Batch of 2 targets.
Target 1
Amino acid sequence: MAQAQKALAREVHNPAVSVDWERVAYLLHVSRQMDEVEETRLVPEKQVLYQFSARGHDLAQILLGSQLTHRHDAVCGYYRSRPALLAIGVPLEEALAGPLARDGGYSSGRDIGVVFNYPNPNGPSALPMCGGVGTQYTPSTGWAQAIEYRRTVLGETDYEGAIAVALGGDGSVASNGFWSALTIATTQKLPVLFYIEDNGFGISVRSHVQTPGGNIAANLASFGGLKILEGDGTDPEEAARLTEEAVRFVREERAPLLLRLRVPRLCGHSAQDTQGYKSEAEIAAEKARDPLPRLQNFLVPAVFTADAWDAIRQRAADDVAAALERALARPQPDPSTLTRHVFSEAASHGVQAVQTKGGLAAEGHVLPKGSATPRPSGPRINMAAAIRRTLEHELAVNPRMVLFGEDVGPKGGVHSVSQGLQARFGEARVFDTSLSEEGIIGRAVGMALAGLMPVPEIQFRKYADPAVEQLNDCGTIRWRTRNRFAAPMVVRMPGGFFKCGDPWHSQTNEVQFVHAIGWHVAVPSNAEDAVGLLRAALRGNDPVIFFEHRAMLDHGWARRPYPGDDYVLPFGKARTVREGRDITVVTWGAMVERCEQAADLAAKESGRSVEVIDLRTLSPWDSEAVLESVRRTHRCLVVHEDNGTAGFGAEILAVVGRECFLDLDAPLERLTMPDIPSPHNPILLEAAVPSPERIAARIDEMVRF
């Protein structure tokens, strides 16, 4: 097609919109060919096990992807977002190999084929998608906040003009993540485009059940700080104009915008969905809105001849067929690699295997080397002061570190741990957030993916529950993207009893995060260990739950001299608090002090020699230290504050029972809280939490067995 004819067509249709219509037409045909071959061949052959067609959504997405040209742009989509990914440059073979679950590419068969990721080094990236509805929104705002941080605080001029795009369907606007992201983007004035494809259905649920009146744009008309556009996503001219206007606004104004485009879903929710909930008239009406023939009518003959259109369609078919053959020729994934990339592999494989994108390591950011040797100086300080001093030093040496959460700013945290940090480092680096744990952790995910070291605080352990989906998804990023992405962060999480208890502020349940794939878990019992473990986490390359026990933050027993600004305590190294011959007691957190007291009681009252081991970290945990001790003492008691059933003590004793069965002189035992929430009354609390007296009595019973 002659360039003059193309230019004339653009001028006739809309002189303000610049679109490469030939590329749009080609990619639309590519997307349709991919959907068709999956639906008619690969799904029936059971070579593709999950299939989500994008027919009807495809034109609008391609127009969106074509506008994402900045190398620091990022889009986070969902299971129907393949056309947008094709438009930002995902190779055709990769787009087909993913659904086939073949080796290589963005997952290598670990995740379902429609959950994409694309760490593009020279252009816009696709952040790791998740299977959960609405999970894309808060990480997108985190990416946008990281853009602004790197642009304004770090002075990285190449981030000027970059934006984040959260791409979702109308069903997802009912999710917690959507509303949390709106709050973050508008209160912080972040460059985020909320791109909502409204097809009228969330699987089978109609839009009016998701949103009053079925129109999220109308409902948000008075939402502060949010510009709104809406229109027909099947009309090539209107969709192109609105998309270009939306992207230009977000780039230039550095502010959020919501664009709602009406599109038909010319298919079921997935290949298994028969759409029995739609009438024949509804299906016919949707088919009449198919954007493919509308694009043809728009371009032929104004831009292309009919022969040129057919040539584009044939080229797309040929390219898809060739890409499919290459994808089918790929081998199946190697089962021997299945357990790789749960965590960073620098230590376990001897060579640095750094993720392509995310965290400090991916960009070669180097922090000072630490020392495993403490150099204590000064008076004994409490754990809160020790954590604060560590955070202060690491903020000073790492300009990419940011600290945030509810009340962490001027108030200094409800436990006073972050007191004074905002005054020293400013609101851009230490800041308060809205009251949304989903938003706190989801935002941290996006920041980490964008190369920062986020340190979010969850005010109390129980309050993490609304963020569990983001926490779980974050931990699996490295594994499910096959080390293409990772989101290292340190989540500070106070919990446990303090003077009294209650079901809302005193929960521990640390085992939940040990069971969450991809998370390291630290539970320090004293100020020195807190410093070393926190610094190791802040300089590491994996996400970490850093559990701060409320009872120990200002406890006299937990006070220690500050061990130095370079003290780093490796994870997975237990400490033998007290050596003994008769029994091994394994514990962590606030129970370490009580087990020491119990050991004193057992020695005084019964002459027992008790070895007490403080694990310090639960993921990983030092099984070697425990097993070596049990082989000498021939008895093992685990004491923890968490509930007994399915608590982490069960895991420890399972390993001890397997490895030390022939060494044991008594049954393995646990002493824990009963299976109840933490009670409020101090008398009830003491009856629930293992006491030194009860621990000592159990020690005596086991030694006398």
Target 2
Amino acid sequence: MDFWSRLIGGSRSSTKTPRTTTPVERLTAFKKTCNSLQQIWRSSGSPSREAAANLHTRHCIDRLNHVLSDESRGPAPHPCLSYASTSQIFVTVTKLALTYQDEVIIGSAAVFFNTLIDAEIEGIVDNRVFSRALVDLVKRANVNSEDVESRLVELLFGVANNIRLQPRILPAWFFPNRSQLPEEEGSGRIEERQFEGATRKDDFPLFYLLVDYVHREGRAGDFARTGLLYLIETAKQSKELERWLIESDLATLMATGLGALYSQLSRHVPSPFAHGEMPTIIALSDHIPVPTLLEPPTGSDFESFLSYLLFWQDTIDHCPSAEVNDTLLDHFQVLFLQQLLYPSLLESSDVKGGSTAAVLTYLYRILDAIDQPQLVHRILHYLLASPTEKEPVVEVRSDRVRKHMSMSRRKSLEMLAAFAGEEENPSPSLFNLVDLILLSIKSKNEDTLVATLRLVAILLRRHHSFAGSLIKTNDPALDGRRTVGALNAEMQQLLSLATTISDDPSIHESYESYAKDATAVLESRLFIPSPRSSLLDGPADQPLEVRTDDAVFTAVISRLERFFSNSVMTNLALTDVITSLASSNLVSLDGWLLVHPSNYQYQKSAAKEESPSEPKESSGDEPNPDDPVAAIKESLLEPTWSENSVPPVLKVLKKLVDQIETWRQEIPDFDILIAARRELLHSGDTLMESRAPTRPPTRPPTRPSSRAPLSRVRSDQERSVSRGRTTEIIYDARLQSPGPSNRESTPASSPHRQTPSQPRPPQMADNVRRWMAKPYHVEESGELRPAPENGNGLGEEAGDQEPQAEVLPNFVTLGHILTNVVILYEFILELCAIVQVRSTLFEEAVYQ
């Protein structure tokens, strides 16, 4: 072996100290180093030798780590590890590290303890002296380095992991005062001071050290949160630990810690568009800086709060004790929801620069982040002032009725109720989240409006089992399913609206893309309540029907009627609300998006008139009512319906499309403008070629097979482009002036035709920008009227950007209208895809 080592290592191997020593030699060297540390500790009172002792201590601990590391990787026996356990050298290491408060020594001491923990030697982790030395090191060490701090917290995590795997070592770390423990349940005798929720750090110091680091970011916070989860999970194997978790201030610390982080959040959300950059779809509109459309950059404070909230979610998921879980949730509701979150919503201000937009955005982010059923149920059950007959109801199982609660749990509830009753706080029974949403959705403050729509959308998308608490619903019909022919009629009506807006030859590719997205969304959102669940949210049999007279629904429809005058961000959030409602299997489409099946009118007589002219296959007998072919033919009949039966969403969409038809007659080359705007939105920051076509296109140009901008901007990953470049687009040389369109083709020799190599005339770009900035006045009813040519100065601005209507808030530009027309087109296609996919996935279209 030595021959091969010398051959491979070469001449360098002869200069190194051999690492392969016998166990006896290794133990001798280890004992010598331990004696040196003992000697340093005994003589550490001399100030003159402090610097030398500090350096000597570093070297000695490093040598211990080196020997233990080599030994732990080798085969047994491990004499040095056994000697470290019996000699308790770890006590000396802790004393020296705390004496010198040197971060290098503290870091080396952390490595030393970590090696002993990983070695799993008998008499180490289950030793109370070892636990006291480790706790003292972590508690009293004064460190500023994140790396050293994370090493110390990693020690706590390592111990928690060992306790989870070997619960028998718990007594070495958890030693409650036996005289303070309650007597056996049912005896009726219990010490009153047990239920004060007082801090009991001496009982379980390891637990409280982990709690101190739970809110931290980075590795230290990750180790602390995971270690604490391991300890809480161990409660299922220790009744004593479970009782201690209920009686201690764990729930109070966690709830007040979450509340403290929430209280530090700013009540003003900054704009997400930094340095003048924004998505193309926002840049090509009359942009008003609304910070709540995209994921707001709420900063490190909110990220810390969100991390702590996710820790709450993980704790409830991993806690095996129902009573500990209920104790945590009770404190969460009283100390966070009731004392902080709800008052912040109630006291928020809707004025310009107020806090309503911020607190609604925080609530939206909270509901978007969590998915733990019990936690979601507590939040929405409280804020929405549920339940009603069809709303979330908590079912208490027989093993959790009050008479079977432990004495600790009962007293904990009494103390929490007394604490909650000390102050009279407003209750959601008088003013709940629905009332706030209703006020905010009618707000004239754009920040508040967009934040409210985002909140409604996330409620309907992520937690649609509570849709019945947000929007009033009716019991479903006995059989609300429609025939295949009725579905075809509905689909043709929706698709005809889209093709009226833009006769795009690539509509099939666009629709296929939306159908794939709708399939993924509907499959992921399919809600099937379990009969064994303790929480039943939403209907369990058939989807509920939306009441069209509901105040929130009516407010959404009112905003939809002002679609073209809305800001782009409002429309993106508004369409997200409607598609989220449409994609819920707990909500029926009948009556608000599709015609109710009871209002269908079938022309059966016309079908019967055609039958006599055809030869009858039968022998003159009446047709068999059980004939499957006849039933299929009848199911394929497409019904009609009266104007009064048209659902409100479809009625508004028709009205908007009629307005587009009016503009098509009034505005020259309107179809080309729409097609060019769609092409620009789909291409992102890629500019179209600066040349005019030989002939004006008879159809809108095709777009690449990609997702629509409507879906792309809703996602969290958006590309931001500089606004100054996206507006420099030449649609056609004929559009250099806003005069009548020349329908004749431009000759090839025309000076208006530009080859790719020729520079673009500056006045052409100015004319197009001026044409896109043509103003339209917004009436109080939401209708748009053309403004006088020079009535407001719009179109006179120079520069590379489209003139903005935000200077005069009652005006919008033609460019803004075109962007909203494109959004409407994509929105209708998205609705079509959702209707078709859910009819198959949810079996809502059948053959009779």
